[in-house]
Specification:
The protein is an alpha/beta fold. About 45% of the residues lie in helices and about 15% in strands. It has a single domain, classed as TIM Barrel (Alpha-Beta Barrel). The protein is globular and about 45 Å long.
Length: about 210
């Protein structure tokens, strides 16, 4: 079933934070997914920063059919096709590549492309998009820059990612137009590689409790 942009953004708004995950071995996603699913955060963005991404998406989808799964760092049509076939619900890209956007539209899957200035905001709107990722958030000016962008482009729904952590996420979420934030601190790659699943679970519980209400 294809998820619409509106439905997706409503789901993301409910979760408030999207764990951004990089795994070197696809099998790592299973204990990681278990910690997300059982601790109140059944959503994941699995990044194409390793060759394990497609298989990790497939394994997570099979193990947790109801989890909201995004494919991140998607750079071309081939990755769009692989991610969708593996079970991804949506695509996230670091920048705004019209070819990647059109590939997602062609294959009927929602994309949240990265923008960080007025020109890319207008390009997104020209392509018929209203959901964007602000990336890299902190290096690109953070909250003041997002507020400045949303003044003329208030129709955009934004998911900032990059430099967001437990200390600043609530400030980001307080900005009108920000739907959710991407973050990796609760699924830090060093914890994944060390198999620190309980610590990941603790961090997930902590952020879920922090953002309730």
């Amino acid at each position: 079933m294809t998820t619409s942009t509106e439905t997706l953004m409503a789901q993301l708004a409910e979760y408030k934070v999207v764990p951004v995950i990089a795994v070197d071995q696809a099998e790592q996603i299973l204990p990681l997914g278990e910690q997300l699913a059982t601790n109140g955060l059944p959503v994941a963005e699995i990044t194409y920063r390793s060759d394990a991404a497609t298989q990790a998406i497939r394994l997570l989808r099979e193990a947790y059919p109801d989890m909201l799964i995004g494919a991140g760092t998607v750079l071309n049509e081939q990755q769009v096709i692989e991610a969708k076939e593996a079970g991804a619900d949506f695509i996230v890209s670091p920048g705004l590549n019209p070819n990647t956007v059109k590939a997602c539209q062609k294959h009927d899957i929602v994309i949240i492309p990265g923008i960080n200035n007025p020109s890319t905001a207008e390009q997104a709107l020209e392509l018929g998009l209203t959901a964007v990722k602000f990336f890299p958030a902190e290096p690109s000016g953070g909250i003041p820059m997002i507020k400045s962008l949303l003044a003329p482009y208030g129709m955009l729904k934004v998911m900032p990612t990059g430099g967001i952590n437990q200390d600043n996420i609530e400030k980001y979420l307080a900005v009108k137009g920000i739907v959710a934030c991407g973050g990796s601190w609760m699924v830090d790659k060093s914890l994944v590689n060390a198999g620190e699943w309980e610590e990941i679970g603790r961090r997930v519980r902590e952020v879920v409790a922090q953002l309730k209400g």
